[in-house]
Design a protein that fits this description.
mainly alpha, 0% strand, 304 residues, 15 helices
Amino acid sequence: MTKVPELDMFNGSYFDAYKGLYSLVAHEVTELRSMFSEGAVNNINGYKVGILTKLMFASSSFMTVIETNHDYSSAATILRSIADNLSSYILIYHNPQKNEIQLRHNLFLYDGFQTRKKSIQSIIPKDDSVISMIEKQQIQQGVEFATNNTENAIKYCLKEIRSDDLYKQYKEEIEYLIRLKRDNWKYVSLEKYKEKPLSWGDMYPLINGKEASRFFISYLSQFVHGLSSSNLSFENTKPETFFPMIHIGITFLGKIHEFAQEDFGISKEILQKNFFKTDYGMEHLSYVSPTYIKNILKMLNKKH
């Protein structure tokens, strides 16, 4: 097993290293949540914080199903979900080109709303459905309402895409991507806009720069889709069975830590201010070595 950097500060424990890093990153994301309004599609920083928040909940669930339920299959499924979210975040938002962030963001939304519209319209009851006329009318009204809202969102995305300065420079290329509808935000580059969009496997190495990520994270689909390997027997009562996945989980937390510190224009000092006075800070200290705690106390004493 590859040794996690600075594992010694967490008493040589993969479990403590994961939980110690989680408490720090969860604090940083919580600080960001207090600074940016989450979820609004027209506020990219807020939307990004919403993604990181979702990742923190998933990261907590990942450790819970390991420690409490000893559930290898569910842990692998959650890990794959985190990987998908991380790789899409990196492709869209962890980018020095602000105008391209805006384009991919709006194409990402456009793709999602197109899929949502198809899904909504698929539940329209057929004429021979064995339900009452009143129920049919209620379903149809609900579908119409949701469809109209989604169509308005699609129009908003198209307006934003076509009003951006990048559109003036790459009108033909971007219109081609709009016509693709599906996975258009995964385009390779605007210069190679007609190439096949990136697959999830293509995107996984974005997380840590390692080509091996393409294969192992893709392998986790066995557990997501219930394929043959997911039915094998695992020694789930032994902690070491989960070490490889926890190691990857630590890498993923490290990326969220990186995004929190680099993607919002908020300094490390502000994000971590008063960390050791919070519940997350106290939790962090419960997982680290006595030597690390002594160093922290020395650092705090110098500030006072």
